[in-house]
Amino acid sequence: MGRETVSLKTTRAAVLIGLATFTLTTLALHVLQPALSPRDEAISSYVHGNHGWLLTVGLIALGTASLALTAVLATDGPGAKPGRWLLGVWGTGVLLGGLFSGDPPGNWSAPPSAAGMIHGNAAMVAFLALPSGALFLARSFRRDPRWKEAAPHLSGLAVATTVSLVAFYASLMPVFIRPGPPILLGLSERILVGLYVAWLAVVAVNLPTSAGSRITTG
Description:
Number of strands: 0
Largest sheet: none
Shape: globular
Order of helices and strands: HHHHHHH
Number of domains: 1
Radius of gyration: 18 Å
Oligomer: single chain
Number of helices: 7
């Protein structure tokens, strides 16, 4: 087995562990903080409650996993350079979202704190970057024979992430119109994030098989 193959499998495992860490910590916080409504409150609100540090750990794990995946695709992935750059923007935004906490829930009419502004802006850019990158990469995945089996699933998920992004932005509209609290923000964000993680997981799972045809080191 070549060293490149071992490295690729190690990276795939690390990416999947990062995605799983985010998923498990977020689910745990739903149990640990039942007072927060998953329908109405953003995921970032959990950082202010019981065991809120779990969210910080989860976001850092998700951001790191996303950047690791970006590095692999840049080295031996399909074309669509803009797609890889946008995936990197997503990963960086998630890391910033983990390092800078959002403001406590219920303060939609008050000016944001410095950390809250960084968190909010990083989140908005990251949420826009991933589906855009996924759409750029979708065509490259379809044209690369190593991604033949995964390409249809990735294309479908790219469209789904885009639709979920539109729904998420629609839930925020009352903040800019009234101003007032968003509508179904928690639900729309959880659907969005779930689809984003699913897209990342499908890419990660297909890395070894996809890159194997280019590996010649013995």
